Amino acid sequence: MNYVFEMPEAMLKECDRKGTVERFEYDTFTYDEGDSKPMHKGAWVYLPYGYDAGKKYNVLYLLHGGAVNEDWWFKMFPDSVTILDNMINDGVCEPCIIVTPTYYRGDAEFDKEKGEYLTEHFAIELRKDLIPTVEKKYSTYADGDVSEANLIATRDHRAFAGLSLGSMTTYRAAFYNNYDLFAWYGPFSGCCGPFGDHEVEVKRICETLENGEKNGLPLKYLFCCNGDKDIAYAEHTDIMGKVLNKCDILKKGVNYDFFTIPGGVHDMKAWQLHLYHALQIFFK
Fold this sequence. Notes:
The protein has nine helices and eight strands. It has helices at about 70-75, 80-90, 110-115, 115-135, 150-155, 165-175, 200-215, 235-245, 270-280, and strands at about 20-30, 40-45, 60-65, 95-100, 160-165, 185-190, 220-225, 255-260. The mean pLDDT is about 95.
């Protein structure tokens, strides 16, 4: 694929064949050890133009970053929807369902203090409640069967991506803890944050890939993205560079790449461009 470093103008023009964005709500729990409490949460779901419940669609779970919520991608930045509409209309990517949830709980004090905790802890809610309720309602390759065995069997049709703290969540909640449910990953801007242990992350990435191979769950694609002026660029490139040196499972251009925007920073312009490229790779 030929990478571009500015969003093509054609992707930002109003499209006649518009998808829809609808509210999705579900019940879950905090899953805190010894103190699990019920929660009611919401997400937004993008359905491509002409969505047909008689067809099966690949699904991308797409996360926001720190201090915002599930409104980020589609409500705070509605041009993200325009980009998706144009990509699908122009055949740049296949029609797919995109779900934008939140790892936060809506408790301002807890969310602020425990943001990094939630990046990994969200894995339980993701597995037990979010994916099953989404894929019970919408027409995905799970075909309504949301048993764990079938969700594992259909992992090739499921992707996870996120920006900033959502990029950390992509590694921790989806890659490390739910590798059997996803085959495609898009960490946009970072891995462990400024205070993380790079060697620990390298070890976890390598072990996840190696265990996946042993268990017959190969990686389809890990598409890392960042701008070279992004605050998360140095830690992200350091970690992934060390992974490449230690793990021969990752093969550039086959199941891995690191897309870098020259001059790119930690902002939505970059993250939309990351998504634009990721959807040209996912599910192929």
